[in-house]
Amino acid sequence: MRMYDIITAKKRGMELTDEQIAYFVKGFTNGEIPDYQMSSLLMAICLKGLNSRETATLTMEMAASGDMLDLSAIEGRKADKHSTGGVGDKTTLIVAPIVAALGVPVAKMSGRGLGHTGGTIDKLESIPGFRTTLAPEEFVKNVNEMKLAVAGQSANLAPADKKLYALRDVTATVDNVSLIASSIMSKKLASGSDVIVLDVKTGSGAFMKTLEDSKALAEAMVEIGNRCGRSTYAVITDMNQVLGRAVGNWLEVREAVEVLQGVGDPELFRVCETLAKFMILGCGIAKTSFEAHTMIRAVIKDGSAFAKLCELCDRQGGDASYLWNPEIRGEAAVKYPVKATKGGYVKSINTEEIGLSALMLGAGREKKEDVIDPLVGILVDAKIGDRVEEGDVIGTLYAEDEETAKAAAERFLGAYTLSDEPVARVRAVYGYVDADGYHEM
Length: 441
Ligand code: URA
Known about the structure:
This protein has 441 residues and is α+β, with helices and mostly antiparallel strands. The protein is 45% helix and 16% strand. The chain binds uracil.
């Protein structure tokens, strides 16, 4: 087999065989196929596309290129969730304990990643002592004993994807639905769960800016998951504004605790409840949506979902007293209110800009080596549809010094567009995709 022939076939719009796909994934991962040939094939894929069989094969080959987590020692159907990423997305901290409290095993591998704020791992590590490096045996043991473990992704999870993604990033070949879907799903397949619930964000702070693009990505990922024998659902949720109010690692943990204590942001709760619902439906714990909602609300009301987060914290070396009494963790040195410079209704918020102002404060990483400051971030007050008057506080920045806060405040304020006319609020959840297609919610 020759890479040249594979490139030629795709350039002419032909369907690649499973053998051809396995050949280039293996060859590129082990260094036998050079970057220039792989780049050429990636561009041909962007121009001519992959069908669903080719996409599923590519995903399975990338998943099998490194460690495949063996969860067979864990009893019952295991559930996992994944978000395509957004600003203020703390859903894992809420959804995983809810689902685990209902008896569903959640073996969660999470990324650190680059971005406006840290990933789930960074958020959990903002709890003093919390340890996210677990040996595979400890990871499996914890899920068996308490239904929940959260650990950093093994460095050898889908290495083919890691290498391909780095190449896509510099060859203008990231924005292809099949390539994005296979990249995300390869890591989910390698993580071993039976049920996969995807949170596909849509809007100004998301990877996918339009509902149409988000639906296409959701459909592609659900198709891959189901073809590969995993029960897969995708929920399409809003990212035209921050999810909830908090952006920044410790601030987000605090907000997650509020939701688990039943007093959190209603929109954030709605997103989490929807994701948790599909996880427990997929695992067969609930038979109907109504039953699932009732069960989820019960574990919030009786405190067992919050107790599960505390148990996770204790088990992984953290001190749960910080969850019970968040005030003892302290706050960033400066609390800087950002005030509206005129009155109006909030028409739109460039959420990526809000994320970038959090990044300026030190809440996330631009480069892998950057160190996150767990206490800095933003609490957002004004959301789409709200009426604000000149001088009203629209958000508070938590910063380490006044100068950084001032620069970030300018960016934060610039993200808002106001209108004289009343503006409708946006929905938190748009719909979901299952094996039968898209359903509006
Ligand atoms: N996230 C991924 O993991 N892969 C992509 O291709 C895009 C976003």
